[in-house]
Amino acid sequence: MKTIWWIRRDLRLGDNLTLQAASREAQVLPVFILDPRLLTGTPARRQAFLFNGLQTLAADLQMRGSNLVIRRGDPAKILAELIADSGAQTVFAEEDFTPYAVQRDKAIAEQLPLTLIQRQLVHHPMAVLKSNGQPYTIYTPFSKTWKSIMPGSLHPTPAPDTISTIPGITSDPIPARSTEQLFPAGEAEANKRLTSFLDERIYDYGENRNRLDIDGTSALSPYLHFGMLGLRSAVDYARQAISVSHNEESRKSSQTWLNELIWREFYIHILYHFPHVQKNSFRTQYDQIQWRNDPDEFEAWKQGQTGYPVVDAAMRQMLATGWMHNRARMIVASFLVKDLLIDWRWGEHWFMQNLLDGDVAANNGGWQWTAGTGTDAAPYFRIFNPLLQSKKFDPQGVYIKKWVPELAHLDANIIHAPWEKNITLANYPEPVVDHKFARQRTLEAYKNARS
DNA sequence: TGAAATGTTGGGGCG
DNA sequence: ACGCCCCAACATTTC
User: Fold this and answer.
1) Is there contact between A381 and strand C, defined as CB under 7 Å from any strand atom?
2) Strand B: which positions are within 7 A of a protein CB?
3) CA separation for the pair A116, A370 (Å, rounded)
4) CA-CA distances (angstroms) from residue A314 to A66, A126, A367?
5) Residue A23 pLDDT more than 80?
């Protein structure tokens, strides 16, 4: 018996039922296909993270007597070739739920013996439905049902000791790319970070996760996106943390982290059930908003030159590291959409071009949430005040000073809004817009769209 | 997982 | 002692 393990977004050996299924009583050929249709939309930085992840996966496989085969091209064509060359009878793959993946796999399954295994999520999108058979569109009832049907244990399995491989299949080289300083790729690194987070920080997550000046989040998103860490493992550990918590606060913190993982799954389900959100507002009336879309203001936002210190700090953090704190994502997204009145899709695209974790579902869900165009109760009038957010979540200006060095010499009572104290700086811009004015303008634009 | 506008209450300064 | 004003603190409504 010979099988192919088609790796897509499960770059790991542990907690991998697809690999287990493929290698059960079989010689298995691990394959990753560089699909030009996906790669052209993937910026160099995220490609590098992926390639480095493939490099470590190849090494992990080699240690177990196996080897990774890389091929570039159309998946259907390459799989057909590999089946012919190797004599494999079946292709196993972890099911993926983006519109592109669903369509691709459906077409391939019509021609080739493809078996999809649902282990990316805790629940398949078709398994969490309302009593009328329709998908949930509001997070809280979704999460209630999601939790109530969660199995007692998710049984994450360790990586197999050995993997028997089909010999003699040639591989393209893995494209070499420089390594991210702050986010080294790979399963071992992901597990190391998870362990460190579970050791202590998870128990203060509820309070610290919103703080821009504290490493309170897990920062696991790039690893979760590529499956270097399985979401199911993360959920299982979250549940363990909840059960071993000794006080109410640490229990609530662990639950909050679990809820964040459920948000991730929620948005994957939403995109699966409502693929139109990829191009349009979930709430169609908001497709009528008259965006200003000023190109100069968009450029200032992208480069972290808006004159709002907390916004600029966040945008520069992303440029410098390929990652942005989640609270900061909400602040800059609100600023782009509600203060500059620029189409949320522009921001969504810039995030996809710059984030290592750039994930169609989570990113789209987050942007539509902020824009108030999305699924959950995110009313159009929920407009962040960047100064209040800044003072609340970075009280001493530590985050600002780190990413906007021009302001590093300013006191905490000045740094959030230097212009209010009539401080002008030679190398830092004046605010691109007045928040109070912009707020009114946006309320008006949204009101017009609804009428 | 919002913030501004508006309303209410109560303490303190002061005539 | 009392009424008036101011305003902070908190609550509610509105966008």
Assistant:
1) yes
2) 1-5
3) 34
4) 42, 37, 16
5) yes
Alpha carbons A28 and A356: distance in angstroms, whole number: 30
Spanning CA of A388 to C1' of B10, the rounded length in angstroms is: 27
Strand B atom within 7 Å of A442 CB: no
Determine whether the distance from the CB of A388 to the nearest atom of strand B is below 7 Å.
yes
Closest CA to A205 of A180, A234, A176: A234
Residues 19-78 of A with CB within 7 A of strand B: none
The model carries a pTM of 0.97
Half-sphere exposure of A65 (CA within 13 A, CB side): 10
pLDDT by residue (tens digit) across A83-131? 999 999 999 999 999 999 999 999 999 999 999 999 999 999 999 999 9
> Per residue in A373-402, pLDDT tens?
999 766 888 899 999 999 999 999 999 999
Tell if A356 CB is < 7 Å from nucleic strand B: no
With beta carbons less than 8 A apart as the criterion, state whether A56 and A79 touch. no
Nucleotides in chain C with any atom closer than 7 Å to protein CB? 15
Q: pLDDT at position A378, please? A: 61
Output the distance from A349 CA to C9 C1' rounded to whole Å: 44
Show the domains of chain A with their CATH numbers.
2-120 (3.40.50.620), 121-155+188-273 (1.25.40.80), 284-450 (1.10.579.10)
For the CA of A427 and the C1' of B15, the distance in angstroms is: 54
Q: What is the mean pLDDT of residues A174-190?
A: 93
Q: How far is the CA of A242 from the C1' of C11 (A)?
A: 34
Calculate the angstrom distance between C1' of B6 and CA of A210: 29
What residues of A are annotated to the active site?
260, 263, 291, 326, 344, 367
Spatial separation of the C-alpha atoms in residues A164 and A67, rounded to whole Å: 10
DSSP label of A156: P
Alpha carbon distance A390, A417 (integer Å):
9
| C-alpha–C-alpha distance, residues A229 and A126, integer Å | 23
Nearest Cα to A57, choosing from A171, A154, A199? A171
pLDDT above 90 (res A352): yes
Give the residue among A185, A183, A190, A129 at the shortest CA–CA distance from A156: A190
Which candidate, A336, A334, A288, A331, places its Cα nearest to that of A447? Answer: A288
How far apart, in Å, do the first and last CA atoms of chain A sit? 63
